[in-house]
Design brief:
about 180 residues, alpha/beta, Rossmann fold, 5-stranded parallel beta sheet, 5 strands, globular
Length: about 180
């Protein structure tokens, strides 16, 4: 049965990096990065509705791809249960399994990693996301997010270094390491 592997977690924890690695190591798996899709919408930086439309488009693509019998991995921060249900519904519509995986870290480590990424990877998306989180309350908003995400039901994978996190993901997914 094909699987929708939803890699969730706070910004800067490694969702996209892990998703790309997983897809590279598993031929046929689609890595559907909603944030990349969002940047493909004209004027996305100033369009408050772009995020919702990008997620809706991504979920339609995910459902269609799952229906081909192949797995999909989606790196996407989702903190609301109604939005999480959309991922489960997309998998269900394709007769697929939905695996919600939460990448975890303590709040101080997350804040350090988020700030390090902003300093070393100043691409357009990272700059936008950094400014957005700063507008929401800077580092305290990130710490609050970690607390909110801890309340969600998911397979938990500690995000440490890239190799250890990848191995832990494979174990969580029931794959041989």
């Amino acid at each position: 049965m094909p699987r929708l592997i939803h890699l969730n977690g706070p910004p800067g924890i490694g969702k996209s990096t892990l998703a790309r690695r997983y897809a590279a190591d598993h031929p046929g798996v689609l890595c559907c990065d909603v944030d990349v899709l969002r940047t493909m919408i004209g004027g996305w930086q100033d369009d408050e509705g772009a995020a919702g439309r990008a997620r809706t488009a991504a979920l339609a693509m995910v459902t269609a791809y799952l229906a081909t019998g192949q797995d999909v991995v989606v790196p996407q921060l989702v903190a609301r249960t109604d939005q999480l249900a959309r991922f489960a519904d997309a998998a269900g519509a394709a007769g697929s399994e939905h695996l919600h995986v939460m990448l975890t870290s303590d709040a101080d480590t997350l804040v350090r990693r988020f700030r390090d990424r902003a300093a070393t990877d100043p691409d357009e998306w990272t700059a936008f996301a950094t400014a957005d989180w700063d507008a929401q309350g800077h580092d305290e908003a990130l710490r609050d997010l970690v607390t909110r995400l801890d309340r969600l039901t998911a397979l938990r994978v500690p995000s440490t270094d890239a190799e250890a996190t990848y191995r832990a993901l494979l174990v969580a997914l029931g794959e041989d390491v």
